Fold this sequence. Notes:
Strands 3-2-1-4-7-8-9-10 form an eight-stranded mixed sheet, sandwiched between helices. Strands 5-6 form a two-stranded antiparallel ribbon. The protein contains eleven helices and ten strands. Helix content is about 40%, strand content about 20%. Strand 7, helix 7 and strand 8 (about 215-220) form a beta-alpha-beta unit.
Amino acid sequence: xxxxxxxxxxxxxxxxxxxxxxxxxxxxxxxxxxxxxxxxxxxxxxxxxxxxxxxxxxxxxxxxxxxxxxxxxxxxxxxxxxxxxxxxxxxxxxxxxxxxxxxxxxxxxxxxxxxxxxxxxxxxxxxxxxxxxxxxxxxxxxxxxxxxxxxxxxxxxxxxxxxxxxxxxxxxxxxxxxxxxxxxxxxxxxxxxxxxxxxxxxxxxxxxxxxxxxxxxxxxxxxxxxxxxxxxxxxxxxxxxxxxxxxxxxxxxxxxxxxxxxxxxxxxxxxxxxxxxxxxxxxxxxxxxxxxxxxxxxxxxxxxxxxxxxxxxxxxxxxxxxxxx
Length: 325
């Protein structure tokens, strides 16, 4: 039997947990996935592991503590993952955060009146916190969503098996307020969007680097999904409103990117991980039919060569500083 090791950051809930379920559902007499849930909250991680083992009693599911907003935590997690014999086949860079301060009433009114469909495809309704910096001195959202994973990839590169893949969970990335001067987006209020824009920009050069070891780097887009981000607002009525509108847009208007639930949203990540001939120049979008049947659409990855070089250079500088090189 062939055993493939899959590491999923943020694997205790949402899309990360859905990726784990999809991989374990593929286990057979010839192939078995061993899943490592790399997550910050170990109590939630243990609950997720219990859920997976209840559904798949013979599965191999492990926990590793990982907080991508902490360099020390990434280093400890990397050391733990390097101890696995046989190497890593799949690394899902899925953990992410959006520091929501409150609902943006002005943004909601403007969006509903001027561009209602595009409004629900965006995060305009959410006002994000400005000026958040981690103990390592980096922008909190930037470090959580981008640099923590970049450092993890750096530390695990030699452990990736030939034919392995790194899969980033992207978003409807936009260049909203992104600037070279504030690439960590500490001063602005679109830190989440900026971080996902960075993911799109670094994927191709990172893929070119990893290909030297027979490893690919890809980006998947989960679509519009109701995840744990909204739960932090503690405004249940708004959450139910968003859910209802999402179903209306998908069923009545037929807009396929409204995947709504995590299981459907995860199909793009799993396709990028397992499909033959995957290409870093393509972004793999999770979509759904009007009735919710999932499928994957492929579109060119938006990429600016100069911006990509700038960002990879900055990220490499941060890695060198941490490594003392």
